[in-house]
Amino acid sequence: MNYKDFLKEIFAKTATNRKIELTRIKQFLDVIGNPEKKIQGIHVAGTNGKGSTCAAIESILHAHGFSVGLNTSPHLVDYRERFRINKKEVLPGDLLALYLKRKDIHEKYDTTYFEISTAIAFELFYEKRLDYSIMEVGLGGRLDASVLLNSVITVITNIEYDHTKSLGKTLPKIALEKAGILKSGIPLVLGMTRPAARKAILQRAKELSCPVIEYDKMVTVTNESYDEDGVYYGISIPSYDFYIKHVHCNLAGAHQVGNTALAVLVCAVLGKIFGFKLDENKTRSALHTIVWDGRLQKIGNNPTIILDGAHNPSGMRQLVRNIKSIYTYKKLIIVLGILYDKEIKKMVRSISEIADIIVISKSQSHRAAAIETLEREVKKTGTLYYKFPNSISAFKHAKKIVDRDDLICVSGSLYTIGEVLGYYQKKISD
Known about the structure:
Blueprint: H1 3-11, H2 23-32, E1 41-45, H3 50-63, E2 68-71, E3 83-85, E4 88-89, H4 92-109, H5 113-127, E5 132-136, E6 151-156, H6 164-167, H7 171-178, E7 188-190, H8 195-207, E8 212-214, H9 215-218, E9 220-227, E10 230-237, E11 242-249, H10 255-274, H11 280-288, E12 297-300, E13 304-307, H12 313-326, E14 332-336, H13 344-352, E15 357-360, H14 371-381, E16 384-387, H15 391-401, E17 407-411, H16 414-429
Parallel strand pairs: 1-5, 1-6, 2-5, 6-7, 7-8, 13-17, 14-15, 14-17, 15-16
Antiparallel strand pairs: 2-3, 3-4, 9-10, 10-11, 12-13
């Protein structure tokens, strides 16, 4: 089996209509010796900002000389994006070797695509004897395969409405699913979130005797500003004796202030636990060199072209705020592709507030919403629109109708922006 065959085989194991449970992955990990229990994990859950927070934690710890693993999902272009060691993607041969080593056991327990990927991360990080292993929750927390991680700290970024069919229709219910990552006695760093969700999480933390470090009680951010090249702010965390007056973070968007400042807090807490202190200059450098694509990522000038993975109503509202506050343009052309299990009506309504033209598309994901579904909602807004059968043809049309002073934004789903990013990268390399 070569790497291409490996990808084809595991992609076919997507958990469509499979029960979400931990039985399969637990049995698999027991057989191979439980590598998940032998690593020092930083486990990150939440509705939005998980990936950005994980990438910022990775950058900060790496800048302080620690060996760091990062496991995230989904990937945008290349499966290897899910696995990083010291900010670099793992070689295809290493991933293939780990799968082939356990292929028979995966088949015995009928593990899913996500479970296979999580198991590879556990074993990879254990074999590399890393100082810290950062793992982003895939869905929820309580029944996510990553929950088996030996966490030395857990993080919940925020709670909003998303995946309501799987996680529940109220914020407290969603919060309890996310709080499934909490471990008895292990510290939780809690980001800014709504009162109803916060109350549910704090109650669960109390039941498990988890010390809780709350972002809004610990962190003061000052002098915030934003542009196309990132965010600028000052941060002080008096309880951990950490202060920086001027930071430039290379992730664009007002929301990245909260995500990256939360990452600084997480690392400060880790420092107190494990006996190291954050260095101002190393932290400053780390925040300026975060590796994280697809979040207000600029891929073109004249006209400006950006990709943003907003994939739920709160993410789309934040995208609207960011476009209003950061970019100048004559016309805004949105290339839009959303998954069918998302709140499409709310997302379309939000982006149509500022869009001059919407180009409707459909990604290759099996969860992609039908063109007709998006068209029905876009029509209600009265926004001028075009429709195309896939992300690439939609993007090509946007480029045909754009003027130099316009802005193209591709959004609605990480799958949609991933396909456009892959097309763009291939075109650049050709």
